Structures are given as structure tokens and as C-alpha cells.
Amino acid sequence: MYKIMIIEDDDAIAKAMKDHLCKWDYDVFNVSDFKNITEQVIRYNPHLVLLDIMLPFFNGFYWCSEIRKISKVPIMFISSASDNMNIVMAMNMGGDDFITKPFDLNVLTAKVGALIRRTYSFHGQVNIIEHKGVVLNLSDTSMTYQNKKIDLTKNEYKIMQILMENIGKAVFREEIMQRLWESDDFIDDNTLTVNITRLRRKLDEAGLEDFIKTKKGIGYIIE
């Protein structure tokens, strides 16, 4: 079941869209907290976002650019501001489609279906792992914290992926080395230690002190 997030502050319009899309077997979530939209995108991990332009606190253009920092999820703008400038702005900010209010709900559903087919018939779901504000995007191998990108090497990223796939569980050093062996780089025990040390330094500099803990005699854990 595809998940759709609706970011629309008009309760009547948001409810009408949700009720109609649910009839077509979509899993629909209506945003109610318009101060923390990025966090909700991370938590809900939608397949498609329907985004109004005129919103409380920050407009849809702002939130589109913020979402684009962490996700490639398709975004369809929904707005009564349908002049060419707004449509061009929406596309330039990272939007994938635009529908003008007022709209027929059947037309909305058709456009939603078309955009989902175009996106997922070829690319599959955008996968994100989030823990304590750290966002690991498996679709573009990026990591962000507090909306700031942390540059990692290929091996550092793989180590983060292994540990974040096992939150709360200690991962053996041998298991990490085995996963890293799948790359073209030679990984032994000393090389792993060097990679962990450099990774921890980058995390510390980003404000993530002690994010990766050592389990003596076992390996490493993110709690």
C-alpha cells in the first residue's frame, strides 16, 4: 500500500482528499503540526507528498527545499496560486507536479496514480533510516543530522548503515568486516579500527558525541 502525506492547512480540503484517496487503498496521513514537517516526513516515510504553498509559519516552497535535503520522494504541489510564476517556482524548488485548486478529486487521484507509477515502476521505494535525528538515506547514500549533510567515505557510510540497521543490537567486528569485504577495498581488523575512529571524529564534529559505542570483546552498537 502506497503512503501519501498531505500537507494542507485547510482541514476541510485535507479531509476530503484523505477520504477520497483512502477509497483507492492509499495509506494517507494528514499533517497537523506545521512547524516540524521535515521530522514528520522522516517518521512517516511517504511514497508521495501533496504540498500546499500557503501554509502557517513557512510556505510550501520552503518545505519542499527542506524535504529535498533528505529525500527524493515525489512532491505534488496543490495550490490556488496557479499563475505561471508559482508553477515555475514549484518545479524549480524540487516539485514533480502541480494541481490547481479547486480541483476534481478524481483528477487528483488520477494524477497521484500517474506520478506514483512513474516513480516506483522503475525506482522502488525511497528508504530512510532515522535515529535520534540522524537520517541515513539508502537511496542516495547520504547522511544528515539537523538538516546538515555529513560527508562520509564509502566504508564509513557502510559502517553507519550496518549499525543503524541493528539499532540497540551489538554488531560483531567480524560481521562488519565481512560486509565491507563486499567492496573493492581490503578490510582487516586494523583498517576497521581506523575507519571507526575517523567516523567517530566526524560524528563528534557534527554534535553526535558517543553516538557509536564499543561493546568490549564484541564490536559496536548504536543505542
Automatic annotation (TrEMBL):
Residues 126-223 form the OmpR/PhoB-type domain. GO terms for molecular function: phosphorelay response regulator activity; transcription cis-regulatory region binding. Keywords: DNA-binding, Phosphoprotein, Transcription, Transcription regulation. SUPFAM superfamilies: C-terminal effector domain of the bipartite response regulators, CheY-like. Residues 126-223 bind DNA. Residues 3-116 form the Response regulatory domain. The keyword Phosphoprotein applies. One of its GO terms (biological process) is regulation of DNA-templated transcription. Gene3D superfamilies: 3.40.50.2300, Winged helix-like DNA-binding domain superfamily/Winged helix DNA-binding domain (1.10.10.10). The modification 4-aspartylphosphate is found at D52. GO terms for cellular component: cytosol; protein-DNA complex. SMART domains: REC, Trans_reg_C. May play the central regulatory role in sporulation. It may be an element of the effector pathway responsible for the activation of sporulation genes in response to nutritional stress. Spo0A may act in concert with spo0H (a sigma factor) to control the expression of some genes that are critical to the sporulation process. This is Stage 0 sporulation protein A homolog. It comes from Clostridium thermosuccinogenes.
